[in-house]
Write a structure and sequence with these properties.
Blueprint lengths: L1 H4 L10 H8 L15 H23 L38 H9 L10
C-alpha cells in the first residue's frame, strides 16, 4: 500500500474499510502474480487479441503462407464469481416492446424470409 498509494497501514487514522477498498483497486503493477485483472486490463488484452487475429486474417487473405495464427494473451484465473443478487421479478417491458411471438411474426413478414417448422 505504501508503494502504490503512499499509505501507512499502521496509521491508526486509516480505517479497515479504506484498506480493503484500496487493496481491491491496486494498480496492475502492484498486484501479485495470479491475481485477477482489472476490467480495463482485461478489455485491453481482449482488444490486443482481436487486433492480432484481424492482422493474421488480413495476411492470410493477402497470400502470406508463413503467418501463424496468434495465440491469445495469457490471463490470470478468474476470481470466484459472486451469486447474482436476488431480483424482485422480471423487468417491465418498455413501451412499444412486444412479445417474442410478435417479433417472430414481424421477421416472418419480411420479404425473402422463409419460415419452416423443422
Amino acid at each position: 500500500m505504501m508503494a502504490a498509494y503512499g499509505l501507512d497501514l499502521l496509521d491508526p487514522k486509516v480505517t479497515p474499510r479504506r484498506i480493503w477498498t484500496l487493496a481491491h483497486r491496486l494498480p496492475p503493477w502492484a498486484r501479485l502474480p495470479g491475481e485477477p485483472w482489472s476490467a480495463e486490463a482485461d478489455l485491453m488484452a481482449l482488444l490486443v487479441d482481436h487486433v492480432a487475429q484481424l492482422t493474421w486474417v488480413t495476411l492470410r487473405v493477402a497470400g502470406a503462407k508463413g503467418a501463424t495464427r496468434p495465440k491469445p494473451i495469457p490471463r490470470p484465473p478468474r476470481a470466484a464469481s459472486r451469486p447474482p443478487a436476488a431480483r424482485p421479478g422480471p423487468p417491465e417491458p418498455s413501451p412499444g416492446a412486444g412479445t417474442w411471438g410478435q417479433a417472430i411474426a414481424q421477421l416472418a413478414a419480411m420479404p425473402g424470409v422463409v419460415v419452416s417448422n423443422d
